[in-house]
Design a protein that fits this description.
By secondary structure, this protein is mainly alpha-helical. The protein is built from 16 helices and no strands.
Amino acid sequence: MRRFIFGVCVFFLCASSAFAYQDTHAPTLEDLNRAIAIDPDACDAYYDRGLLWERQGRLLKAIADFSQTIRINPKDADAYGARGGAYVLLDNFTQALSDYNKALEINPEDKGLYYNRGLVFVSLGDLKRSIADFSQAILMDPQYAPSYQNRGITWERLGDLDKAVADISKSIALDPTDAVAYYNRGICYDQEGRFIDAVNDFSKAIRLNPHYAQAYTNRGKVYAQLDEWPQARYDFTMAIEMDPQIAQSYNDRAIVYYRLKEYRKALEDLQKASALGYKVDAGLQGIIKKAVDK
């Protein structure tokens, strides 16, 4: 299965706040607790403490503090955006959408809010609205590569591979060091039957990130379509070494081993795939068992 990798919400938040501290160091949790104890309506202290909670993965506490910020200052777009981001991390996309909508009502000039809301629309399956939001972010900042890449992936889901490749290529032109962009364009090329281009893009992704298991997996699939069985075996083996839990890689390597007449290894891989929960094709398994028994 080909799997695209979407970007993540980037939040576009300032690490510091307007709250005045006696020292110049970044506020600690103790600083913020003390500030709130002194002034229970210290809006910026709640906001900064929410960011600290979020960085620690304590998302419910982060949401509570962002909510306190909003209670004190209902016009704080950053607080709505930050709370929306925390809801995204909890997979509560409906609430995240509500917060991003409110943030954009307050501050319609924030490209990051459009970008993040576009990702939420993708998660909710509203692809046309995600296209609109990524396009608005691009209009506001034509040099922001992730907006092009995620719009490209969304075009692919809508069945327009030409637009998908064009957008992801623009993303690569703006940031040629992004391994994920090459990976995503490689998937598009594979779907278009441009197998050599797909191999080249997956190879570029691997050069930029030598531990990119999914890039090895997808390059292996393309090599298999080209009947380049030794190269496919190498790629599936690399993917398995990096992530031994990728069940489909065992299944795919089993097919390669069968093509290379290494039947016992093929059967072992099918058994591993099955043990990891992959639904192995019974017909294929029967054919390989017969080959082993000969």
